[in-house]
Amino acid sequence: MSFLTINNLSLAFGEVKVLKELSLSIEEGELVTLLGPSGCGKSTLLRSIAGLVDPDNGSIVIDDKEVISMNPKDREVGMVFQSYALFPNLTVEDNIAFGLKMKKLNKGEIQKKVKNMIDLVGLNGKESSYPRELSGGQQQRAALARAIVVEPKVLLLDEPLSALDAQIRARLQNQIRDIQQKLGITMVFVTHDQEEAMAISDRIFLMNNGEIAQSGSPVEIYTRPNSEFVARFMGHYN
Ligand code: ADP
Ligand code: MG
Questions:
Q1: ABC transporter domain: from which residue to which, for each copy (predicted)?
Q2: Prediction ipTM score
Q3: Do 229 and 37 touch, CB atoms closer than 8 A?
Q4: Are the CB atoms for 123 and 141 separated by under 8 Å?
Q5: 210 close to ligand 1 (CB < 6 Angstrom)
């Protein structure tokens, strides 16, 4: 059994089928990308894993537990969004500490974990800054730290870098990859950018129209596309 297994997941908004009996499985410590054009259902799939939308059919098993009927907060899943969802009225330090306070850890433990996270994402010197005083890239690093510090079983990232400049984006791709490997976090990273997917993933699930068109390592998908859709999406006809 894989660490995260999705089986025959279906979801429709009214008449529109957004996820069509979709199945996939992910191993513990893997970084996989859900890649695909806008509207293909990437965010809906991620939100289903997080418990923010209810699928009509199918199952989602994380670490041997069926999570579909589970409360979102009991799923031990973290999420980072494209637009920085930091609390604007809290400092960087307090944003990162937020989830730990909810878990009622003692003050010393919280301070230690927050300090480790600040070091890990490289926000030293910004502990007392408010989100509005940070650059976009720094805000995303703080959002990443806040999501990781509570040690979720799976971290879901929905186009976390799409709003950033190319240069900062490339740097953050590397940083996310480094942190993921260092801590062995299981990550599901959503992007519509094939170069980004190629750069950071162990495996890519290329989606089209609510289904997985092809899955495999970046090299496999790039060199052996199984359809014209995949070949085009990976940039073969440009
Ligand atoms: P992606 O993240 O790949 O761009 P989404 O999962 O956001 O795709 O959307 C997939 C499809 O579902 C789109 O056609 C979108 O318009 C539709 N959709 C997403 N969320 C809702 C919603 N809450 N209500 C109705 N339709 C939605
Ligand atoms: Mg989306």
A1: 4-234
A2: 0.98
A3: no
A4: yes
A5: no
Query: Could you tell me the two tokens for 98?
Result: 């937020």
Q: Is 42 in the pocket of ligand 1 (CB under 6 A)?
A: yes
Q: Are 167 and 161 in contact (CB under 8 A)?
A: no
Sheet containing 154-158: give its strands across.
Answer: 77-80, 154-158, 186-191, 31-35, 203-208, 211-216
CA of 189 to the centre of ligand 2 (A): 11
Ligand 2 center–CA 125 separation, angstroms: 33
The token pair at 65 is 């537990």
Q: Which of 73, 62, 23 has the alpha carbon at shortest distance from 205?
A: 23
Type of residue at 138: Q
Distance CA 60, CA 185 (A): 18
Distance (Å) of CA 91 to CA 97, 118, 131, 132, 163: 10, 12, 7, 10, 22
3 state DSSP class of 90: coil
Atom of ligand 1 nearest to the CA of 40: 3
Closest ligand to residue 13's CA: 1
User: Phi and psi (nearest 5°) for 181?
Assistant: -75, -40
Ligand 2 centre from 24 Cα, in Å? 18
- pLDDT tens, residue by residue, 28-40: 999 999 999 999 9
**In terms of DSSP H, where are the helices of 149-190?**
166-183
